[in-house]
Write a structure and sequence with these properties.
The complex is a heterodimer. Chain A is α/β, with parallel strands linked by helices. Helices cover 28% and strands 25% of the residues of chain A. Chain A is globular, with a radius of gyration of 31 Å. The model of chain A has no long low-confidence stretch (mean pLDDT 96). By secondary structure, chain B is mainly α. Chain B has two domains: 97 residues, Orthogonal Bundle (Fumarate Reductase Iron-sulfur Protein, Chain B, domain 2); 32 residues, no CATH class. The chains are: A alpha/beta, B mainly alpha. At the A-B interface, β25 of A face α3 of B. Bound molecules: flavin-adenine dinucleotide and iron/sulfur cluster (4 copies). One iron/sulfur cluster binds next to α9 and α10 of chain A. One iron/sulfur cluster (SF4) binds next to α9 and α10 of chain A.
Amino acid sequence: MRRIGVFVCWCGTNIGATVDLETVMEKARQMPGVVFAGDNKYMCSEIGQTLIRDTIVQERLDRVVVASCSPRMHELTFRKTAAAAGLNPYLVEIANIREHCSWVHKDKAEATQKAISLVRTAVAKAARNKPLQADQFAVTHRALVIGAGIAGIQAALDIGETGFEVDLVERTPSIGGRMAQLDKTFPTLDCSACILTPKMVDVAVHPKINLYTYSEIEAVEGYVGNFEVTLRQKARSIDKEKCTGCGICYEKCPSKVDGEFEEGMSKRKAIYVPFPQAVPNVPVIDRENCRWFTKEKCGVCKKVCPADAVDFEQSDQLIKQKYGAIVVATGFDLVDLDEFGEFGYGKHPDIITSMEFERLVNASGPTGGKLLRPSNQEPPRNVVFIHCVGSRDKSRGKPYCSKICCMYTAKHAILLKEKYPKSQAYVFYIDVRTAGKEFEEFHRRAVEEYGAAYLRGIVGKVFPSGDKLLVNGVDTLSNQTVELEADLVVLATAITPRRDAAALGRMLGIGTDGHNYFVEAHPKLRPVESHTAGIFLAGTCQGPRDIPETVAQAGGAAAKAIALLSKETLLSDPCVSNVNESLCTGCLACLPVCPYKAISEKTITEKVHGQERRRLVAEINNALCQGCGACSTACRPGAMNLLGFTNEQLLAEVDAICL
Amino acid sequence: MKITTAQLNGELKAEIAQISGEHVADCYQCGKCSAACPVNEYMDILPHQVLRLLQLGMTEKVLESKTIWVCAACFTCAGRCPRDVDLAVVMEALRAVLLRKREGSRLKGEEMPALLRKGMPEQGIVSGFRKYTK
Ligand SMILES: Cc1cc2nc3c(=O)[nH]c(=O)nc-3n(C[C@H](O)[C@H](O)[C@H](O)COP(=O)(O)OP(=O)(O)OC[C@H]3O[C@@H](n4cnc5c(N)ncnc54)[C@H](O)[C@@H]3O)c2cc1C
Ligand code: SF4
Ligand code: SF4
Ligand code: SF4
Ligand code: SF4
C-alpha cells in the first residue's frame, strides 16, 4: 500500500474563502493510500514547506499531493521541497484547486465537491507515479540576440562583457533601431545619438560580439542549451572588407526612393547607408530599386568606387550556428493610420506622426534640424499635438496605452518652443500619464515653463483650410468645443510589435498575445523569460516601454542568459516519451506526428523460440523530445508512453474523476 | 447640486441601459463624440456630458436638456468612439424614455388586427410599440 500525504493550501483567502478545506481534508483521509492530510495558510511559505518536509520523514510518505495553485506556479517549489526530504521530486502531484476551482466558482458547496474530486484525481495519479531521473546534457556557450535596437545592443554588450560569444542579428543594414531615429530623449533631453552611438561603436569593436546586419533568422531547431539556428545574411552587394565608407557610390547613384530611416520624408539612393552614424558604415544595394538589378544597366557605383568594393555577384549566405540561449529584441512598429480618416494623415503633408516630428527636429534629419512645415518649408507657429491616436481604442485601434506618447509629446512641446520661442503648442489629451522618475516634473515644465496649452479632450476632425489646418476638438473640463488653426498637426501614434512578430514567434516556439507582443513566462515574477526555456525577451517586442525601462529589461534578459551560459550542463526534463519495445510493432505511426523530430527507427535483435529475430522499433531521442505526448496518442498498441503522464496514470485520473 | 449614492444608482439608469443595450460605464470621457458631432453648436450640453451625467445617475438633467432633441441621429459619434459606446443609440433611448412617460401606452395589442387591416404598415406598428409602450 502507498503512503500518500495530502497537503491542502488556503492561499490566504484565495482558496479558503470558496472551498471548505476541512471537508476536503476529511475526504482525502478516506482516499486509497492516503495516510495523512494537513493544511496551511500558505503551503509555499517556509512553515508550509517545513510541514511537508517533516511529514514526509515522520509519516514515511512515499507520494505527496499538494492541493494548491496551478502547477505552473509552484510545482517546481514543491518538487524541491520533497527532494530536500529525500523523496524523488517526480513523486509529487499538484491538485490545482485555485485556478481550476476557487477562482472560477462562487458556490462554496459545489466548489468543495469539485476540489475533492480534483484531489482524488491527483491521489489516483500520484499512486502510480514512478521516480524519474533527469539526464544531463552539455550547454553551448554562445548566445544569439535577435534585433539590434537599444534592447538588443544592451543585451549583447552585457553578455559579451562576461566573455561569452554573442551573435547579434539585425534585419536592416545598420544597428541602432528606433532610438537612432530620435532627436532628444525625455526626461533629461540628452541627445539620442550622443548616448546611443558610443554603444553602437562598442558593439562593432567588441571582441566577443559578432555582428550580422542585413540578416534574418531562417530556421530554429533544438532546445535550451543547444538551439540550432540558421541565419540568412542577405547579399549587401558590397565587399565589406574592401569598402572604405567614402560614400562616392551613393553620391553618384541615379536611382532615388523614399528613405525608411527618414520616415519617407526625404529620398535615399538605391545604394545607401541608412544614416551617417550607421554601424557598419558600409553601404548596401537595395536590389529592388537598383537599375543594374532591375534593368541591367547603370553600374555607376561600381565604376566610381575607388576601392572596387561593389560586387553585383554577391549572394545570400546561410549560416548555421549553435546557441545556448537566445534573447529576442525585435522592437516596435507604429500602428497603421488608414483606419483613422478623421485625422487626415496622408491627405496633407503637414499632418505627421510623432516619429516624423522626431526626424524634423533632428539635426541629421531631412531639414537639418530646422523644424519646417513639409508643405512649404516655413517654420510652424501653431502646432497641435494629439495624444492616444490608435491607443486606448478598442474599436479601431489598440486597447492598450502605448505608455511613451504622453512623455514624448511633452518633449515635443518643449523642443518646439526651444526652436521657435514665438510658437505655441496645443496638446489634446485624455489623461496625462507620467508614472516614472522625473516624468511628472518634466510634463509640468512643458506646461509651466514652456507654455504648452493642454486641452482635455480628443480631436474629432482635422481638415485643410487655405494653407492652414483646421482642428475641431473639445475641452471636456470647460465643456467647450474648440476650433484651432494649425500649421502642423502631430499624431502620437500607437506602437505595435513588429508586423512579422507572430511569424518569428512561431519559428522560435514562443507565444504572442492578442496584439502580437511576445508573452513573458509570468507577468510579475518572470518578466524577461518566454515560456520556452532558454529564450528571453527584451524591450518593446514584449510591451510598450521607454528607453530606461528597455535598457533595464535588456540587462535582466542578459543576466538570465548569462546564468544559463555559465552552466556546463543542464538537467533535462525526464518527462519524455518512452518506447516499450516489447509492445512496439514497428509501424512507426508515431514518427511523422512528432513536431520535434525526436523519433527515429532502430532494429533490435531478440530471441523468439530459441531463434534470433531482427525487427524494427521506434526510438526516442531524449534530448529532442519535449514531452508533448503526440506520439503516445498515435501509437495503436500503446507502446509509446509519456513518462510522468503514462496511459495508466491518465486512465486512473479519469476513473477517479468519474467516481 | 451634490452627487449622492442614491443618485449614482438611479432607477432610470437601468431603464436606459435596458432600452439602449449600451454600457455607459465604458465611456472614459475623451470627448471625441462632442468634437465630431456635426450639430454640437446647437446643443446646451455636449454629447460627452450626456454620458457623464448618465454615469453619475443625473438622468433628469439629461432628460431636461435640448441636446437629446437636437441630436440628428447621424451616428458620427458612434463611429468614432474609441470605447465602442453607441451614443446615438443612448440618445434614442433617452428620447424613448421621455416619449413613453409623456404619451403612455398609446398602442394596445388587441387593436392590432384592425389597424393592420386598415393598412397600417408593420414597420409603423413596430416603431409605435417601441416608442409608446412602457
Ligand atoms: C516618437 C517617439 C519618441 C520617443 N521618444 C523617447 C524618449 O524621448 N525617451 C525614451 O526613453 N523613449 C522614447 N521613445 C521610446 C523608444 O523609442 C523605445 O523605448 C526604444 O527605442 C525601444 O527599443 P527596442 O530595442 O525595444 O526596439 P527597436 O528600436 O524597434 O529595435 C528593434 C530592432 O530589431 C530589428 N528587428 C526587428 N525584427 C527583426 C527580425 N525579425 N530579425 C532581426 N532584426 C529584427 C529592427 O530592425 C530594430 O533594429 C520614443 C518612441 C517614439 C515612437
Ligand atoms: S548600379 Fe544600382 S546602386 Fe549602383 S549606381 Fe546604379 S542604380 Fe545605383
Ligand atoms: S501614453 Fe498617454 S498618449 Fe500614449 S496612449 Fe497612453 S495615455 Fe495616450
Ligand atoms: S467618444 Fe465614446 S468614450 Fe469618448 S466621450 Fe464620447 S462616448 Fe465617451
Ligand atoms: S448621433 Fe447625435 S450626438 Fe451623435 S454625432 Fe450625430 S447628432 Fe451628434
